[in-house]
Amino acid sequence: MSNSTLHQVWPESAADSPEHKALAALRAQIDAVDDQLLELFQKRLDLAGQVGRAKDAPTGPHTKLRPDREKAVLAHVHGRAAAPHKEAVTGLWREIVGWGLAQQGQLKVQVWSPNEPARAFDGARQRFGRAADIRMVQDAEAALRFASDGGGVAVLAVNNDTPWWIGLRKEWAHLSVFEGFGGEVPSAFAVGPIDPAALPGGRRVVVSAGGDAGDGAGARRWGLHTHHGWTLALTEARIAPGGPEGCVGAVG
Ligand SMILES: C=C(O[C@@H]1C=C(C(=O)O)C=C[C@H]1O)C(=O)O
């Protein structure tokens, strides 16, 4: 295409056309909104940093990640967002909350999923956001040890033969499940040294030796895995983490 043809299609006077002016005015509004967003986002980051320092005193061995609070923040913005924007708002706020948590120290996530590594990694990235340092690992026990030693959290698949979850009733009893990945019947769980008071209020994760122990009458229950008499299940029964029913956490 020659220059003369270009001139015909897009004459110099186009800069003064009503279309161009309307576009420029809209972009000026976007620039102004960006300035406001930038100021508010940085203010939020600073506040999250302050919350982190306020949490220093009583947290003990627990991570600063508070799944219950994150869930409440996401539910709040989802509830207030206009219907066509709910998905965009929720996706963005996952990122915002991830960066908020990062103000209190970068979250490290070890993902173990021998059968579906990409799916588990994507789930972890969506849940914890760009701010998190997320790595695939080859050994479920090592990932649990990493979480136990305060290194961060682990995302572990259950669609395989390694019954790592039995350890949540034994050597890893101080770790809690706080998220499920893959829908109603999760194929992976996030596990970490979460303050039991900060667990999300969703379905409870139960690891029990034999059968249906601890399920309240009539509560819905999803069996996920069994191994040598041990059962991993989800339940809607309102049982307390760490109690005799074998509740090892909850999913959001
Ligand atoms: C700011 C906090 O710390 C973290 C960051 C959050 C956020 O940015 O909204 C929410 C929960 C925590 O995982 C908090 O506990 O309130």
Walkthrough of the structure:
- The protein has helices spanning 3-9, 18-55, 67-80, 86-102, 117-128, 140-148, and strands at residues 108-112, 133-136, 153-157, 176-181, 188-192, 204-209, 221-227, 230-235, 247-250.
- The model has no long low-confidence stretch (mean pLDDT 91).
- It has 252 residues and is of the alpha+beta class.
- Helix 2 packs across helix 4 and helix 3 packs antiparallel against helix 4 (86-102).
- The chain has a domain at 60-200: Periplasmic binding protein-like II (D-Maltodextrin-Binding Protein, domain 2, 3-Layer(aba) Sandwich), CATH 3.40.190.
- The strands form 2 sheets. It has a 5-stranded mixed β-sheet with strand order 2-1-3-5-4, with helices on both faces. It has a 4-stranded antiparallel β-sheet with strand order 7-8-6-9, with no helix packed on it.
- Strand 7 (221-227) and strand 8 form a beta hairpin.
Cα-to-Cα separation, first versus last residue: 57 Å
Walk across the major sheet and give the strand order.
2-1-3-5-4
The percent of residues in helical segments reads 25-40%
CATH homologous superfamily of the domain at 60-200? Periplasmic binding protein-like II
Cα radius of gyration in angstroms = 24 Å
> Structural class per helix/strand content?
alpha+beta
Which fold name fills CATH's third level, the topology of the domain at 60-200? Answer: D-Maltodextrin-Binding Protein, domain 2
> Could you tell me the mean pLDDT?
91
Ligand list: the ligand C=C(O[C@@H]1C=C(C(=O)O)C=C[C@H]1O)C(=O)O
Q: Which sheet architecture does the biggest sheet show?
A: 5 strands, mixed
Q: Which CATH first-tier class of the domain at 60-200 would you pick?
A: Alpha Beta
Low-confidence stretches: none
DSSP E strands, number: 9
GO biological process, one term: chorismate metabolic process
Protein name: chorismate mutase
Domain Chorismate mutase: 17-108
GO molecular function: chorismate mutase activity
